[in-house]
Write a structure and sequence with these properties.
The chain is 25% helix and 9% strand. It contains four helices and nine strands. The chain has a seven-stranded mixed beta sheet. A two-stranded parallel sheet has the order 1-3. The N terminus and C terminus are likely disordered.
Length: 259
């Protein structure tokens, strides 16, 4: 599902107000808000959102936003989700110097050059432009080479579209991509008929004494490290969710937290 042209029930759209922000966060002052979830509210104008100077975690997905101007003042913002909107540019985010994770899947970004404004964000490690499970994408993702171009444009990224591109586990994802490419049919015109060849070399099925393979051992070790890292991340996510439920529950004494 690409960005929708007109969403149901959104005749005029909604503008963010101070009262809305205080109601959603439970805070009495905008400067005290650290987390906001404003998903699917039909927002078309960010209004006074730029006054939430302590904001670190923000979800604006599923709205009808066309610009992110007020976000330029959010210097503490670390996690931003603006998926499924109508954005054609991300320039205001160049000022969000602490941004680490950005989800812009399901917008109208047409060329990789529209991501150039993110090049100065040294802490940006996670970027999502496409979400196949949610059927969200951007026009620039139609190019088979977009993934490599984005990686070259933003070399500091560790994860693109949930695939690790650097650090532990990146070799595993690269292997999967190479396998996908090798399984794709040839794009050359006309039928391509080749002489049948044996699948394996002569003598392949003959029994040989077992031997160790340093390459295989290294691959297994990297895979185990990746699995352990996933488990650690899952545990951290569980801890964060538990704290969130505790803080946001009626019995909680605080109304915002660092995500």
């Amino acid at each position: 599902m690409e960005p929708q042209g007109e969403k149901s029930g959104e005749a005029e759209g909604v503008r963010i107000t101070s009262q809305m922000l205080k109601s959603c966060s439970g805070e009495f002052a905008l400067e005290s808000i650290m987390l906001l979830k404003l998903r699917g509210l039909g927002l078309v104008d960010l209004g006074c959102l730029g006054e939430c100077l302590a904001l670190e975690w923000l979800d604006l997905s599923g709205n009808a936003l066309t610009h992110l101007g007020p976000l330029a003042s959010l210097r503490q913002l670390a996690v931003l989700n603006v998926a499924n909107n109508r954005l054609t540019g991300l320039e205001p985010l160049a000022a969000c110097e602490n941004l680490q994770s950005l989800n812009v899947a399901g917008n109208l970004l047409a060329t990789p050059s529209q991501l150039q404004c993110l090049a100065g964000l040294r802490g940006l490690e996670y970027l999502r432009l496409r979400d196949p499970l949610a059927r969200l994408s951007n026009p620039l993702c139609a190019s088979p080479s977009y993934w490599a171009v984005v990686r070259e444009l933003l070399p500091g990224l560790k994860v693109i579209d949930s695939e690790r591109v650097s650090g532990r586990g990146s070799e595993f994802y690269q292997l999967c991509r190479d396998l996908d490419c090798s399984l794709q049919p040839s794009s050359s015109p006309g039928p391509c008929i080749t002489e049948a060849q044996p699948w394996v070399e002569p003598g392949y099925w003959e029994s040989w004494p077992p031997r160790s393979s340093s390459i295989l051992e290294e691959a297994c070790r990297q895979f185990q490290d990746t699995v352990q890292e996933c488990r650690d991340l899952d545990r951290q996510a569980g801890d964060c969710l538990a704290r969130a439920e505790q803080v946001l529950s009626p019995a909680g004494t605080a109304s915002s937290f660092v995500f």
